[in-house]
Every structure is written in C-alpha cells, then in structure tokens.
Inverse folding.
C-alpha cells in the first residue's frame, strides 16, 4: 500500500532502495550522502530490509565489494559523493566493463581543492566516460522513482550496465518534501527479480573480467557503447511502464517545458530545473518566449531530442554546475556537438553557476534568459560565462 | 591425476560470437602453458622419499602423484624451481632446457 511521507532527498533514496529489495549494500558514508546509508543500515538492523550490509573501509572497497556481489548475480546498491566517487573511479570502469548492473546514488558535491562539502556537479561530470548511465533528478519524488527505474534499466538483458542516480548535494539531499512511497506489490509488479547469466555460478563456472588484448578489445568496447545507446529506448519504455503502474511520468531522456514556440531555451539538469521552471512561467507572463529543456540523462546523451527541441530557437543557453578547465562546461560541449549537426545552428552560451554550492536564485536565471534574448546569432567571443562571478 | 586437457577454441568472427561481458567458461584451456621455461625439474626416483613437499608447494599443481613415482607435468611446469629448492633430500635437480634431452 502506498503512503505519503515528509522526507529528505536522501531518505527518499533509502526508501526507494528498500522497495527494490537489494541482496547486498556496500557503501561508505560521506557528506551529503550519509543519511542514505544510515537509513539503509537502520532498515537492515530492524529487519525491514533483508540485505547483506557490508561495512567497507573506503569507497574504492565499496565499489569493489559491489562488483563482487553483482558478479554472483546479486542485486546490489551503493552510494557515494564527490571525493568518494573519484576514489572509486578505477572500480567504476571495472563495473561497467564487466557489464554489472549496479545502481549507485551520487550526491553531487564540489571537488577539492579548495575544500568544500556543498553541492555542485564537478564530481559526476568528471566521470562521464566511465561507461555508466548517468541520470539526474529534480526532486525527492523523482529520486525515489528513478532508483526503482534505475534497476529496471540496468538489469535489462540488453543493457547490463551500471546506473548512477545523481542528486544535488544539500539542495536536494537535505531538503524535505512530501513524497509518495509506492507499495511493495506495485514495485514487484514493475521490477522483476534480477536474473543474469553474466555471473559466477557453480553450475556454469566462468572466468569474469577476462583479458582482451589488441586483437579482441574493440568489440567489447563497441558492445558497451551500443548497450548504453540502447538504454535510451529503455529509459522511455521504463518511464511509460512506471507511469502505468504508479501514475507518474517524467518524459524519458528529457523534459521540454514550454519549448514549443520558445525564442530562447535554457538547458539544465538537476534541482535547478525547479527554479528555472518558475522563472520561465514568470517571464512568459511578461511576454518573453522562453523555455526550459531539462536533461534527465546525460549518458546516453539525448542528441536527437536536443536537435528536435532546440532546432528552431534563436539562442540556447546551458546552465551547469561544473567547468572542464581550459575548455567549457561538460554539458555545453555535448549540447554543441548535438546542435552542430543542424543546418542552421542556434547561438549558444554556457552559464557556469552554483559552484561550491553557491545559490542559483531566480534573478540569476532571469538574467541568463535576458542575455540569451539579446544575443546575436554568430556571436563568437565569450561563450563561457561564469554567471555569478565577482569581477571588478 | 586429472591432467588439464587443451580444448579447441572457436575464435569469434563477429560481434554476435562474443560473450556479452568479458567472461568465458572457466578452465577452458586452449594451449599448454610451459613455453617460458628455461630450467626443467628432474626428479631422481632413487632419492625421492615421497614426502610430497613438492606436490604441496608447486604453484602450478604440476606434480603428478598418481603413479608409483612422482612425475612432473611438463605441459604446465613453468620451471620456477620451488620443488628443487624445497626438496629435503635433494631429489630434484634443475636442468637447462634443450640440454641432455
């Protein structure tokens, strides 16, 4: 039976994990993910979740243990953030290369140094090429729902790829809202038990993580690439099926908000989509034709969706909480790659904001929209703007 | 002793022939594995007291104790010399490959 509870983003994740009944949880606590693993260890202790909770000494070990568990066919969950994500980077490749459908929550947090525990997306954006599907959620309800959907996507026999569910640190992990907690029966109906042949098995012994030298390597990598590309269809399919069972739909790879006749569109991801939505509504009231394109997934990347939705706009902005030093924001690079296939490419600008947890206010976003509205096509200088910079 | 037997390996010709992840049936030997050996252990049956120290310590499990005399499985012995080093009665000597055979 479904219930409604007033919970934080972290708690919503833990409640979602309990509903999918993982066999193994291996995680190391790190702010602002800590509450997730605290709640899960409570659930295991009070018997409401019958899982093996592995106490590990680091994030590298957390992912290594998850790989071992998933490697015997166990449904596995872990969670991390920031430095912890980077510490497990080596193992992220092992998990994806081995085609193990581990699901991990990542609390988006700044990377040292300068030392900072607040939210930005430098951590996950630095790990785009590790072969994981990367989802971003806007609120606690979407966080819970996507934890459940993440297993559906990851464990699909045609995908078998780990999934990272990203929540903005503090803004989402530590703020409270009313969340609908689905009933166990509905979740069981939506998510079948995990079954795979890619595992260690006494009846069919296999060597996992075999060597593939120069003569054999390319095809394994090609398979990984194809699996993640195929995941796009599964994300849409999962969204539809989830909607049928639970009555909530998110749109799949992207959500276009008031983009149909938009002169300018701001592309962004994560919790700031909520603020942007409000700004779009208020600017629409003032007669500005502005829209929001929310990216829900950036690996696989929604190339085609971006072209279709943004192709007719005059200018496109990308608001993101990361910078690839010496280049551009990571999302901006990918958006430009998608748009470059159009005959007429809209003007694009990159807004870097929210670094180290600096608040992105409605007025900041309104300023971005006004900049886009006054920008000229073909403008070449100054594409990357640090939106909240204290300059002279 | 159940000695490992090399089996035929069908090389994948197209993507569909590949396993989905980098895994393969365990213990599927496609070749014997002793090509890197420089010295070969030779057991002198007259000196051997069958204490089985070499059998226990051989890192490749290449000592066969199923017959009346201990034998080295040269298909898998890498020539590391642990057996010769550990033998208390000096029944194992290391002989240069290609010499005196």
């Amino acid at each position: 039976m479904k219930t409604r509870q007033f919970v934080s983003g972290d708690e919503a994740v833990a409640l979602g994990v309990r509903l999918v009944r993982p066999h193994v949880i291996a995680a190391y606590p790190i702010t602002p993910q800590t509450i997730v693993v605290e709640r899960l260890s409570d659930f295991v202790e009070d018997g409401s979740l019958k899982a093996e909770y592995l106490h590990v000494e680091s994030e590298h070990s957390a992912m290594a243990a998850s790989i071992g568990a998933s490697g015997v066919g166990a449904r596995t969950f872990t969670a991390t953030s920031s430095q912890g994500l980077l510490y497990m980077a080596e193992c992220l490749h092992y998990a994806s290369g081995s085609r193990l459908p581990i699901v991990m929550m990542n609390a988006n947090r700044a990377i040292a140094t300068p030392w900072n525990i607040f939210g930005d997306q430098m951590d996950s954006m630095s790990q785009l090429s590790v072969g994981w599907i990367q989802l971003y959620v806007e609120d606690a309800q979407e966080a819970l729902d996507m934890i459940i959907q993440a297993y559906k996507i990851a464990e699909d026999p045609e995908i078998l790829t780990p999934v990272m569910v990203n929540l903005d640190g503090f803004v989402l992990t530590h703020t409270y809202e009313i969340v609908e907690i689905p009933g166990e029966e509905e979740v069981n109906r939506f998510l079948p038990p995990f079954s795979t042949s890619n595992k260690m098995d006494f009846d069919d012994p296999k060597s996992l993580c075999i060597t593939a030298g120069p003569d054999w390597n390319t095809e394994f990598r090609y398979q990984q690439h194809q699996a993640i590309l195929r995941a796009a269809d599964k994300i849409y399919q999962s969204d539809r099926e989830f909607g049928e069972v639970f009555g909530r739909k998110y749109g799949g790879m992207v959500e276009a908000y008031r983009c149909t006749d938009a002169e300018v569109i701001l592309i962004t991801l994560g919790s700031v989509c909520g603020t942007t939505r409000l700004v779009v509504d208020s600017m629409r009231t003032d007669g500005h034709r502005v829209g929001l394109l929310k990216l829900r997934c950036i690996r696989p990347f929604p190339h085609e969706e971006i072209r279709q939705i943004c192709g007719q706009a005059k200018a496109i902005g990308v608001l993101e909480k990361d910078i690839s030093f010496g280049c551009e924001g990571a999302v901006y690079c990918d958006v430009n790659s998608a748009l470059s296939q159009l005959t007429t490419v809209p003007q694009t600008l990159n807004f870097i904001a929210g670094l180290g947890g600096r608040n992105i206010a409605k007025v900041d976003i309104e300023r971005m929209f006004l900049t886009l509205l006054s920008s000229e096509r073909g403008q070449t200088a100054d594409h990357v703007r640090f939106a909240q910079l204290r300059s002279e | 002793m159940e000695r490992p037997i090399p089996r035929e390996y069908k090389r994948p010709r197209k993507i569909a022939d590949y396993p989905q992840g980098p895994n393969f049936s365990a213990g599927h030997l496609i070749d014997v594995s002793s090509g890197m050996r420089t010295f070969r252990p030779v057991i002198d049956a007259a000196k051997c007291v069958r204490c089985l120290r070499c059998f226990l310590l051989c890192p490749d499990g290449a000592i066969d104790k199923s017959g009346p005399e201990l034998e080295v499985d040269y298909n898998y012995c890498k020539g590391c010399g642990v057996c010769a080093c550990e033998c208390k009665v000096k029944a194992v000597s290391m002989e240069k490959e290609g010499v005196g055979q």
User: Anything to note?
Assistant: Chain A touches chain B through 19 residues (CB under 8 Å). Residues 211 and 233 of chain A are 31 Å apart (CA to CA). The first strand of chain A starts at residue 3 and ends at 8.
